Each structure stands twice: as structure tokens, then as C-alpha cells.
DNA sequence: CGGAACGTTAGGCAAGTTGGCTAACTATTG
DNA sequence: CAATAGTTAGCCAACTTGCCTAACGTTCCG
């Protein structure tokens, strides 16, 4: 609980934050709208807007017309009041960075892709400077950088774990980046950010909670509980590759990675006479061919096994199949998984295919960056 | 986000709530302490305390002495400002209710146990009236009733699911109770409430999050994430009895209940030559005997299998073994489970035995009731 | 059909209310 | 006597109510 107490300054700060938050949420509002939404009086609303525009946080974007009376000014949060950069990091032979610079309104201002050098520090700072210059921003005016990582970030220890990209596992890297950039640097798992994209741009817009299963070379799970992501003790929640299958021990031991990890999917495709270079290609081939039902059925059964364990622990109303393999499987795979799950357990979450177009990880990072930037701007409008 | 805006009245409400919350949290405080904690000035602190005492929410409980200057008044939240009742419901041949009435400070005022009639409505109202009368409270002065149920409550549908106690599955029962009692009625799963007890009185006081596994006749899991419990889409989170074991289908299918449910534990004990009437008796016998290692090892291995699935999804820093069987197993079982888990998975949550004495469900319900009552009182001190 | 009157709405200004702060003062106790 | 608890008085900041002006669309009469 926020234990706040204070005097008139606090009141002013509260009212300004509330007004700015409304502008950010709803886009454009007139003074009259704000008056109704905040419950404040006309003079106060005017004063608050005067302060917000003076501070460069709000701008007049138009005038009403058509009705009786004078035209009212339409306000919006100033899109240029802050900028954030989302960076997706992945390993593709060498470190590869995709980045988007967007403004406070969430609009994309600049975009870049680089095959980076080994040392992350100059790679990221160079990318940030490049984007800022191309967007015509003063260097250092980016207030927030969101990293999407193929690993898990432990903020308590300040270290990125389980990451295969060289140089990125150095302790203190995130803090060093923040110091060098003069910006807040947030870091999160790529699958978690894909889940954020799913909530903003995909099929999970309306649900209270959902779980997103990421099938690709690796295997991952993101758990969204009412809009906040579950991260676990050391950022390790959702490592469902370790879910055990059967009671085997030692060499006999089997886990979910052995069942539906990338190599396992390729092997399964092979036993059904489907040869492909990647698991997603194998699944795509199966979906488009006429007689590949048995392969998909077998794969769905394995996926359903993993989902049964997840559903028994979390009981999510919706499970989204994502990642290259999940997307390639499409509705054909989703309906088979649903059937397999219903046949084996009494739990019945809805199963859907990801609805995010393009690069879900970068889109999710962009959404997360924008969200954090808004929170930062709202908080900064209320000093102390 | 609470989007609040307002005038001086809001300020006063904020300051009063903050002060009352501090009193509830810290027990006893002088005006000077409050001044320091809230940052308010001397006259304002006096005014706030005058209002709180006038409203009967705070009382003077003593005076400082020893230092120079006049003695300062020591304030506390008025324990009699509100009362709550915790009721644990279970099936024992016939419906059985255990109840505790406690005041705002959390102190027990009265206690009752009844083997109740079939209809829950008169049983509960009778119990509440009886406790109130014995505590010398005016009828209807109890503002909050917390129910602990061997089932899951779906607040959206207003129905208690998966409950074996006759009469308690009637739709609308909780709302009817609230109307008849003129009080807020909260309902929660008994294992969830045992987890709350574990946080307040047991071994989970300091951790950020933990999972509590309940071994008894049935099998349950409570997930505490930073003090809030995960409940799932339809209150079904933690139904780990459904976690599948191996890829069998149909009659061949095995789940965790078949492995570590009460009957399964009894059977396992039997194969190791231990005969007992209940699973907890079997485990207790094994722990106290010298040569029952093999049984405990086998049981620990099965438990570790279930925990591996839970840990892969949630990555909790701590797992507490609770319920009759978990408590009977004690440290002997916990160390074996730890070893078995380390041997099979790379995940390494700490494993501990429940540290809650007495009836953990009722204690947890009492803690939950007290917490909700405090929130209610704080909220009611800030009108609108 | 054109223009003036009317009603409606945006926004500003002035006076009044509320709540909290500072500073000075009184009272109390080791 | 020195230090501290608590009160009183006056001030300030922020919000509200009520009223005013100006702008705009509509309507109605000449």
C-alpha cells in the first residue's frame, strides 16, 4: 500500500498526474471532458492544463466545431514529451539487434537492425545514438530503453542468466548501460515480451489472464496474470522445458524439451516421413499437405501433455500457442491440441494461435517500453 | 491504477487513512512518532488524532515517561472498532464448523465448534450470533466473515465449486449469507488460507513468494506471490492432482493423485510392509521407525516429481510441505524430497515443513479476516 | 430569404472555504 | 532550568461556487 500523506502540494501533484494519465489513456480530451472525468472544477482544470502545457507535457491538437457555443480546445499528451527505444537481442551466428524508437504516443519514429560487435556496451550505445540522431533528437533525450533478451534477467543480482549471446552474461551490464545512456534500462525475457504483444495486438486483449507457450528452437512459457507477468524467484518462471515426463531417472529421464523442443519436433517429423531443415518448416509442410494428420496429431498430443501440467498449476482461461512452430501450426494444430487436452484432463482452457503480426518480441518490447515511459512521465509530473 | 483527483477533503481523507494504517501496522505510536512517519506537522497530527479518536477508531493506551518534558500520549487503533469472524468448514461425517471471533487487533475474543445441520444458512447465522452474544457485542456488529472451504469459490459466478459438504454448493449462498448477516462475507479455499497462515505464523514469513503443497486425503497447492494468492480462471489454480504422469491415455492414464493422493500413499506404505488406517499415520509410523527409509524414499521421489512440474512453471524460492501427511513427514521427508528433486531437475527451490501449530486453516482464515477487516476500516475512514 | 434575437457552451475572474504549515506560546517533568 | 508535548494564532496554497463575457448554432420574424 502506498502510505502517502501530505499537504496542498501533494494535492496539486495528484491532480496533475491524474489529468496527465487520463490524457495518455484516452488520447484527446477537451477541458470539459477532463472536468467530468476528474471531478475537478473549471478553474482548477484550466490551471492544471496551463501547467501541463507550460511543462511541455500536453499540447493543443485541435478545436471542436459543429455544436453551439465557442469551440473548445482539444488537448493531447505531447507525443514529443518523451521517447523510448525497444531493442530485441538475439543470436544469429553473431549477436543481432533489432530496435525501434517510438514517442510517448507509441508511434514509431525510427527503426534499425544491426549485426553487432561482440561487446554489448558499444553496440547498444551506438544503436541508441544512431536512432536518436536519425529521429532528430538531442543525444541523451531517450529516457527509457527496453531490452528483449533470450534469457532471464535477475534484477536483484543485476545479471542476465541463461543467455547464449556472447558478452551479455556479464554481471552489471544492465546497470552499466543505464549509466552510459543516462536512461532507465529495463530488461525482460523475449517470451514475456511476446506475451505483452499478445495482450496489446493479439488474441489476448480481453482476457483477465493467459499463458503463452513459445515453441521455437527452445521452449518457453509466459504467464500473464491480469496484465502483470509472473517472473519467479530468479526470473526462472516458465522454464517448462524442465517439466518431467514419466518417472524415469538418470539417462532414462525425459522432460518436455525431449518431447516438443525444436530437435524433438524435427525427429518426430522424420518418423512421419517429413524432412525439413527447421521444426517450423516441418510443421508448415504438414499443415499445408493433405495427409500429414498423424504427425500433427502426435505433436498435439505431446503439447497437450505439457499444457495439462501448466493448466493444473495455473488454471488459465486462455493458452496462446506462439513462436515459429506455434504460428506455423495455426488453427490446424490448435484444434488438435484442444482435442488432445480434453481427452486427457478435466481442465479446459481455451487454446488459440498467436494473433500478433510481424516480430512479436520487438512489438512486445515496444509496448512495454511505451508503458514504462508513460509511468515515468506521470511520476515525474508529480515531484515528490 | 487508482485515478484519484479531488480537493481538500481528499487530502484529509488521505492523511487520516495513512495515519490509521500506520497505527494498525505498528501497534502503538505517540503523536511525535506519527509526525515523523507521515511527515505532517504537529497541529495537523493533533487534528487527525482528534478526529480518529472521536470516530472511535483510535484510543489512548498509555503515556510515555522517563524523558524530560511532559509525557506524550501513546495511541493505538481501537481494537473494539471492528470485529471479524473466521469459520472453517469441513466434512466429518456431517458438516462441521470451527469458528473464531477476533477484534481489530487480531486478538481472539471467542471460539466455537459445532457439528452443524444440513442447511448452511441457519448454521452459520446461528454460529455468528452465538459468538457475538458470548463476546458481548451487539448483534450485527460483526462486519466481516471469512469462510474457509474445502472447495473453490468463484466470486464471478457467486458459487462454491468442487465442495463435498452437503448444501454448500448452492448458487448464491455466499451472497445470501452476506445479506442475512449484514456483513461482508469472504470465501476462500482451505489450502489457500493455510498458505496465509504459513506466511503469518509459519516458515514463509520472510520470502517474497512460495508454494504450499497440501498432502492429506486430497492433494492441493496454494501459490503465494508476494502476499497475494493466485486463484486461476475459475478458482481452479493449484489443482495439481491433475498433473499428468507419463503419456498414458484412457485407463492407462496416471496423474499425481494416483501417485501421492491419500489412497496412493496408503498403498505405497502397504507395499513396504507398513499398515495404517490413514496416510498420515502410515507416514508418522515410518518416520518414527528405524528401518522405514525405503518407504519415505519412494514417497519423496513421487512428491519430487510433482514439485518438479510446479517448479518448472512457477520457480518459487520456497516450497512448503503441509497437510496432515506433510506435517507427519517432517524434516525426514523434506530432506528426502530435496535430495530427490536435486537428483532429477536443475531447479532448486528450498523445501521446508510447515511451521504452523494447531489448525492452519482456521489460523489462516483468522489472519485473512483480520487483514480484510483492517482494509475495510481504513477504507471506511476515507468516505467516498 | 436575410438578419437579429435566443439559447448553449467555453473559458475567465472574484470571492469564499478548507486544510495544512509555521511560529510563538504554555505547560510539564526530570 | 532545559527539554519536550501539545495548543493557539495567523498565513498560505489550492480548490469551489457563482457570475460574467464571448463565441457559435439555431430559429424566427420582417
TrEMBL record, chains A, B:
InterPro entries: ATPase_NBD (IPR043129), ROK (IPR000600), WH-like_DNA-bd_sf (IPR036388), WH_DNA-bd_sf (IPR036390). It holds the Pfam family ROK. Coiled coil: none annotated. Belongs to the ROK (NagC/XylR) family. This is ROK family protein. It comes from Phytohabitans maris.
Amino acid at each position: 500500500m502506498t502510505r502517502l500523506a501530505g499537504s496542498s502540494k501533494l494535492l496539486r501533484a495528484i491532480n496533475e498526474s491524474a489529468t496527465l494519465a487520463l490524457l495518455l489513456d484516452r488520447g484527446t480530451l477537451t477541458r470539459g471532458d477532463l472536468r467530468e472525468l476528474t471531478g475537478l472544477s473549471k478553474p482548477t482544470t484550466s490551471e492544471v492544463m496551463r501547467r501541463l502545457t507550460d511543462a511541455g507535457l500536453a499540447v493543443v491538437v485541435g478545436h471542436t466545431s459543429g455544436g453551439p457555443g465557442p469551440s473548445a480546445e482539444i488537448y493531447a499528451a505531447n507525443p514529443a514529451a518523451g521517447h523510448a527505444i525497444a531493442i530485441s537481442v538475439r543470436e544469429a551466428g553473431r549477436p543481432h539487434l533489432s530496435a525501434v524508437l517510438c514517442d510517448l504516443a507509441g508511434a514509431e519514429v525510427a527503426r534499425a537492425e544491426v549485426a553487432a560487435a561482440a561487446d554489448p556496451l558499444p553496440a547498444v550505445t551506438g544503436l541508441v545514438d544512431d536512432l536518436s540522431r536519425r529521429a532528430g533528437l538531442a543525444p541523451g533525450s531517450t529516457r527509457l530503453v527496453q531490452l528483449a533478451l533470450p534469457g532471464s534477467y535477475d534484477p536483484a543480482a543485476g545479471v542476465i542468466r541463461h543467455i547464449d549471446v556472447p558478452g551479455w552474461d556479464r554481471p552489471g551490464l544492465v546497470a552499466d548501460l543505464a549509466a552510459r545512456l543516462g536512461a532507465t534500462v529495463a530488461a525482460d525475457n523475449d517470451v514475456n515480451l511476446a506475451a505483452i504483444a499478445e495482450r496489446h495486438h493479439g488474441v489476448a486483449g480481453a482476457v483477465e489472464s493467459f499463458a503463452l507457450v513459445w515453441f521455437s528452437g527452445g521452449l518457453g512459457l509466459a504467464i500473464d496474470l491480469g496484465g502483470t507477468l509472473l517472473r519467479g524467484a530468479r526470473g526462472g518462471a516458465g522454464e517448462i522445458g524442465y517439466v518431467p515426463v514419466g518417472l524415469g531417472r538418470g539417462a532414462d529421464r525425459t522432460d518436455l524439451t525431449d518431447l516438443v523442443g525444436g530437435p524433438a519436433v524435427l525427429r518426430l517429423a522424420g518418423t512421419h516421413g517429413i524432412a525439413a531443415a527447421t521444426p517450423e518448416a516441418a510443421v508448415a509442410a504438414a499443415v499445408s499437405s493433405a495427409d500429414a494428420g498423424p504427425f500433427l496429431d502426435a505433436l498435439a498430443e505431446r503439447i497437450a501433455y505439457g499444457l495439462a501440467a501448466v493448466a493444473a498449476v495455473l488454471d488459465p482461461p486462455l493458452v496462446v500457442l506462439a513462436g515459429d512452430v506455434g504460428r506455423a501450426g495455426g488453427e490446424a494444430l490448435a484444434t488438435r491440441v484442444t482435442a488432445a487436452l480434453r481427452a486427457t484432463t478435466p481442465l479446459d482452457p481455451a487454446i488459440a494461435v498467436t494473433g500478433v503480426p510481424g516480430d512479436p518480441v520487438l512489438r512486445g518490447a515496444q509496448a512495454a517500453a511505451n508503458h514504462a515511459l508513460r509511468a515515468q512521465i506521470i511520476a515525474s509530473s508529480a515531484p515528490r
